[in-house]
TrEMBL record:
Pfam families: SpoU_methylase. GO terms for biological process: methylation; RNA processing. The keyword Methyltransferase applies. It comes from Nocardia camponoti. This is RNA methyltransferase. SUPFAM superfamilies: alpha/beta knot.
Amino acid sequence: MTESSEIAAGPTEWGEHPYGVGPWAEEYGTEPPTDERYDPELLAEGDRRNVVDAYRYWKREAIVADIDARRFPFHVAIENFGHDANIGTVVRTANAFAAAAVHIVGKRRWNRRGAMVTDRYQHLVHHADLAELREYAETNGLEVVAVDNVPGSVPIETADLPRNCLLLFGQEGPGVSEDAKTAAALTVSIAQFGSTRSINAGVAAGIAMHAWIRQHGDLSLAW
């Protein structure tokens, strides 16, 4: 088990795109702050990153530290045995909901485009296989909850999700693997009403994370 250190520039950390703010002096007409959380280069040149206004001009390390102080105790894991393109979306959504960490099981490399550079602010952990992930969960007191529409699953709309849990998602198409189902203490499903057999794995992850937030999240911490 290793924490990922790969950083890749995404399509919208916004670069020259006209989002964000300009130099501090131009925006506010005052001398830049000297608080150590602020990045001198961003203060001088402007901040075009994909961050909320409260984090404008902050150093990346300061942003991560601030989120760390209020992260929620749920983790997210997704199997990556076939370079699933949904992983970036899962990472981005986990960042939005301040998940403790995202665990990628299987192949180390994954498509970062959908993350839109949120992997810079989200803790990522790699596991070679499900056995390693399960050991991590047991060591850290996390109950594994698989998310898949399979016989015997409990509707997530009515399920009591554990506060300290690891939400586990399979790949697009095959869903959660048999090994993952074995590792899970609980399997939940998402109600569907149309013709398709399953919904996108990235979408399913967002629904599941929000279900956890509705049950356990402190909404006073939201921006």
